[in-house]
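Residues and backbone
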Amino acid sequence: MAGNKLSLLGVSAFCESMASMLDAGIEISEAASLMKQKKGSAGQLNEGLQVIESSLQEGSTLKDAMEKSGMFPEYALQMVEAGEATGKTEEALKRLAGYYSSQHSLKEKITSTIIYPMAMIVLIIIVLFLMLRLVLPAFANVYETLTGSLSQSSYSYITYAFAFCRIALIVMVVLVALTVIGWFMYGHGFRKQISALLSRIPAAGNILKNLALYRFTSAYEVYLSSGFLQDDAIAKAREMSEHPEVNEKIDKAKALMDEGNGFARSANEAELYEPVYGRMLIPAERSGDMEGALKRLSDLLSSSVMTSSDALLGSLESILSGVLMVTVAVALLCVMLPLIGIMNSIG
């Protein structure tokens, strides 16, 4: 069966439920059966669980059964396979549940950072369109009637309002078009190119860098807890990062590890993490609690990404609100000044 992939939250829910049942002593095949809805229910997850249950009853491993269902990403399959090979299936499922839950939260945060400003820009476009089609033409017709020829009167600067609104409208439309094109390209084979372009923007670049570090660190911790050797865990976790600078530092740390250094020292010398983060790893490595330190570091990086996203969203909101207010204020000022002049001449 080649079904559609589950959402991040769906994968997290499956792994968490399966881990809980295994922890309670329930057999894997029975756990898959218990997770299904009532007989006859349709749905992608229910169909996938039916495939998993049938495969497990035929003697397949959990990894093979999950792969056959076609619902799970390759990373999850690798983790479950490693967990089964090392006798840590339950631990691997728990780590995967936490990993995909965090990924979902980060995805939602980053999506809101993009969608909310776009909604603001669309609002600005609607306001400018109404100004150009309804408000400004109505005032222009009134002044044209009063003066005979608006272009040759002393109140011709109402045309500045039209020009200002048109320029602002064009800029907003271009921003929306570029965002839509970039979003489409990001999801259709140009992920690295778009990420590299955004990395040049200071605020966005910092978020993308910390996001790449979070994905690498979280994946590395899950690989280690699932029984992978350190070298293999780093090589596989590197695939989760798509940031050129981060990947370069990971490669440098890996080279230092090949010379006999530990991960903590290698990561610090390669400047993979900021010093305040990197220092967490040294005592953890000496005490044998590297996995715990990596988990705490992943949480800190995740929190950093969310904080930076909130700050960027707040800045964009303020800027766009300011653009809307300034544009409307300038347009109305250009409209009202002729009215004031006419009233003064009548008075």
Notes: Confidence is low (pLDDT under 50) at residues 38-42. The radius of gyration is 29 Å. The chain has 15 helices and no strands.
